[in-house]
Amino acid sequence: MLATRAISLVGKRAISTSICVRGGHGVAKVDDYALPAYFDRRENPLPDVQFVTELSAEQKSLKEKEKGSWATLSNEEKIALYRISFKQSFAEMNEGTKEWKSVIAGMFFFIGMTGLVVLWQRKFVYGPVPPTFESEWKEKEVQRMLDMRINPVEGFSAKWDYENKEWKK
Amino acid sequence: MSLAKPAMRGLLGKRLRFHLPIAFALSLVAAAAFKYGVTEPRKQAYADFYKQYDTTKEFNNMREAGVFESVRPTGK
After folding, report:
1. A–B: how many Cβ contacts below 8 A?
2. Can you tell me the distance from the alpha carbon of A14 to that of A22, in angstroms, rounded to the nearest whole number?
3. Residue closest to B63 by CA, chosen among B53, B55, B71
4. Which of A37, A38, B5, B55 places its Cα 20 to 30 Å from the Cα of B21?
5. Does A119 reside within a domain?
6. Is the pTM of this model over 0.90?
7. Which chain A residues contact residue B65 at CB under 8 A?
8. Would residue A25 count as lying in a domain?
9. What is the C-alpha to C-alpha distance for residues B27 and B64, in angstroms, rounded to an integer?
10. Residue B53: left (phi > 0), alpha (psi -120 to 50), or beta?
11. A5 located within any domain
């Protein structure tokens, strides 16, 4: 009772696909992607299904042998059983790829492209630089800073020799 | 093939026991290095500067250079 009420909250479509044979329609076809899948993930060490779905005759007999005492299994058989259940071992799934080389290459490429764009911009987009950057202006600016004793302890004016009117050696 | 059973527990504890003392030690070293490499010399520089500082002389120099608005240079 509770289940059907819960289903009616989910939606009318869910009723026909999930539970029962209603109105003589039968159970809907279950697509592959709806079934439990196998995947190699470090955080999900035991997937819902084993890797090999159709066992060969050899593998079937091995599975039968597995039902007995495991001490009788040789190392090769143990590995074969592992490979039936799992596609890659943890070492294999965790190993790095060479993808970083493409990443670095891409980075350099786009930085280069950006550099070209910036050069073009400097030439064709920006106007002239303000007059405050001319040498004459800068000389007057530095003289004024020294007169004001900017940072006289450790910084700017500390490097100027006021007696001899030159930069300290 | 029998491999040893890997460590199943206490992994975080082991990592912390290894890394935390190192982290603390390095932080202390960084702090000490900054204190004795930067702040102490800086304090000393300021102390030395102001020991020899003649306020009136500096004021007059700045005044003659014409950077003040409240006092014009002497003359004129």
Report:
1. 20
2. 12
3. B71
4. B5
5. yes
6. no
7. 147-148
8. no
9. 50
10. beta
11. no
